[in-house]
Each structure stands twice: as C-alpha cells, then as structure tokens.
Amino acid sequence: MAGTVASPEGITNPPIDDLLVKTDSKYALVIFAAKRARQINAYYSQLGEGLLEYVGPLVETHVQEKPLSVALREINTGLLVSEPTGE
C-alpha cells in the first residue's frame, strides 16, 4: 500500500543501526544486551523470593515483552553505557 509506514515491534525496534552507534561492534552489542537481558530475567525471578539483588527494567515494559527487547530499548535510550573491557 502506498503511503503507509511500518511501525516495527519487538527485536526490530529500535533499529540495529541506531544500536550500533552505542557500542564498539555488533558483537559487543550482542554480549552487552544478553548480559542485561539475563539481569532483567533474574530480577523477575527473584521478585517472589523478596530479594533485591538485581535492578529491574529501566524503561516502561509491555505485557509479554521479552527481556532482550527491554535491554535493547534501555541501550537505545542511553540508560546503559557499554564500556570496553581492557584486554
């Protein structure tokens, strides 16, 4: 259809090009986002136990949104900053 604009959802939002500006490489982005997604997942798992070891999502989440999508949105908004691991 002419004149329509797609509104991406899930892993395609935010666009990968915007995310690559925030990190050194696509590999660093994958590792960074995966670590944060595991932290978010652990946060939800610990809620029932009353522990507060991990930090929850820093952006507003939607029902049934995956931790990786949340992590990518956090990176895109600049709430998380990737730092090189001196090797």
**SSE sequence, one letter per element:** HHH
Number of helices: 3
User: Between the first and last Cα atoms, what is the distance in angstroms?
Assistant: 51 Å
Shape, per Cα inertia axes: flat
Mean pLDDT: 82
Radius of gyration: 15 Å
Q: Report the strand count.
A: 0
| Low-pLDDT sequence parts | none
| Portion of residues within helices | 40-55%
Structural class: mainly alpha
Strand count, sense and barrel status of the largest sheet are:
none
Structure description:
With 87 residues, the protein is an all-alpha fold. It has helices spanning 16-20, 26-46, 67-77. The radius of gyration is 15 Å and the shape is flat.
Task: Provide tags for this entry.
3 helices, 87 residues, single chain, mainly alpha, flat, 43% helix
Write a short abstract of this structure:
With 87 residues, this protein is an all-alpha fold. It has helices at 16-20, 26-46, 67-77.
Fold topology:
Layout: H1 16-20, H2 26-46, H3 67-77
Helix pairs in contact: 2-3
